[in-house]
Amino acid sequence: MFRHSTDTELVVLVGNHDIGFHYEMDWFKLQRFEKVFNASSTRIVTKKGVNFLLVNSVALHGDGCPICQSVEKELLRLSKDLNCSLQHYPLYRVSDASCTGQDAAPAEERHLLFREKYDVLSKEASQRLLQWFRPRLILSGHTHSGCEVLHENKFVEISVPSFSWRNRNNPSFILASVTSQHHSLSKCFLPEESTVIGVYCSAGTCLLLLLLLHCLCLKGLLQCLSLCLLGKHKSL
């Protein structure tokens, strides 16, 4: 999906579209993901002295399932080295009511309550992640809409909107510059789907008009040619 040069590293993060929701998750799906992308679903990626924790948030339901226990054990082991957290599910929040911006959820959807362990992580799992890692930046997805949340007045979470027209009219992605002391995020929007559809419809209409005009001109030319031939035939 994301074509890139051989000298560009592609980092993947597991989500419910890869291994299913929590109740659908099993070892086969998890190991298939890790085998295809040759990477553990929970790990630390270090770039220029900054540690990024990639969290298998599908397994953070706290119900004691074997995969959950394995993921939590690995998170505890990695907890000493964290700077930034990357995860599919957002940390717990009631709704998107406080979210703003052109990539936020539509106004009529922002006050819809999120379901724990389905739309967002549970309160308990979110508190554990914040206590274990105390990240200075959290990047998440899943809701398909953009949002910036400040947890406990000190932990910044950015929910990245969907990159697909399937999920929203104005998809986007984020370019991040992260150092050991600072981070800077830039949001890049793709053309709106409605605009692209409008361009295609306009282009199609113009082509049809040109084709119709061409047919009318050709018809007129044939009629003139027929009249000329008929006139010559009568004169003979």
TrEMBL record:
It comes from the Eukaryota. The keyword Aminoacyl-tRNA synthetase does not apply. It is a multi-pass membrane protein. It is found in: Membrane. One of its GO terms (molecular function) is hydrolase activity. Its cofactor is Mn(2+). The chain crosses the membrane at residues 207-230. Residues 9-145 form the Calcineurin-like phosphoesterase domain. Keywords: GPI-anchor biosynthesis, Hydrolase, Manganese, Membrane, Metal-binding, Transmembrane, Transmembrane helix. Pfam families: Metallophos. GO terms for biological process: GPI anchor biosynthetic process. One of its GO terms (cellular component) is membrane. Its main location: membrane. InterPro entries: Calcineurin-like_PHP (IPR004843), Metallo-depent_PP-like (IPR029052), PGAP5/Cdc1/Ted1 (IPR033308). The keyword Manganese applies. Metallophosphoesterase that catalyzes the removal of a side-chain ethanolamine-phosphate (EtNP) from the second mannose of the GPI-anchor protein intermediate. Participates in the glycan remodeling steps of GPI-anchor maturation to allow an efficient transport of GPI-anchor proteins from the endoplasmic reticulum to the Golgi. Belongs to the metallophosphoesterase superfamily. MPPE1 family. This is Metallophosphoesterase 1. It comes from Knipowitschia caucasica (Caucasian dwarf goby).
